[in-house]
Amino acid sequence: MKIIEIEKENIPYRFDISIADEIFTFEVHYNSDYDFFTVDLEGGGEQLVFGEKLIYGLPLFYDVQDNRFPKLLIVPWDESGNSTAVSWETLEASVFLYVMDKDEDNGE
To answer: Measured between alpha carbons, how far is 6 from 53 in angstroms, rounded to an integer?
Structure first.
């Protein structure tokens, strides 16, 4: 499994990442009023998603059936089992964005 590192000190910011040999652009935002993160996704030169909320254990873009999106799952997860939410305190401390094949089990 690969981990997508989020640089909280740079938020809001954009970065390119290769997922299954395709280049995507992520833009990460943080809502300090309600303590949650969102990502915007670009792929193939077009905006695909605005404001996808990071929800613990739920794959990003899970409700989209579109071949322009990443072919692999991206799941906020804590392998230690200590955290059950994505927050400023947990992201990049115990909760990380894991990139995994759709048939990999995330321990649930």
So the answer is: 14
- Is residue 98 within 8 Å of 77, Cβ to Cβ? yes
- Short-list 24, 34, 3, CA closest to 100: 3
**Is the Cα dihedral 44, 2, 108, 36 positive or negative?**
negative
Residue-wise pLDDT tens digits, 73-105: 999 999 999 999 999 999 999 999 999 987 655
In angstroms, the CA 51 to CA 99 distance is 19
pTM exceeds 0.85: yes
67 burial via Cβ count (<10 Å: 0-12, 13-18, 19+): exposed
In which element (H, E) is residue 10 found? none
Task: Give the other-Cβ count within 10 Å of 28's Cβ.
Answer: 21
Residue 8 phi, psi (nearest 5): -60, -35
Q: How far apart are CA 16 and CA 18, in angstroms?
A: 7
Tokens standing for residue 25: 């652009």
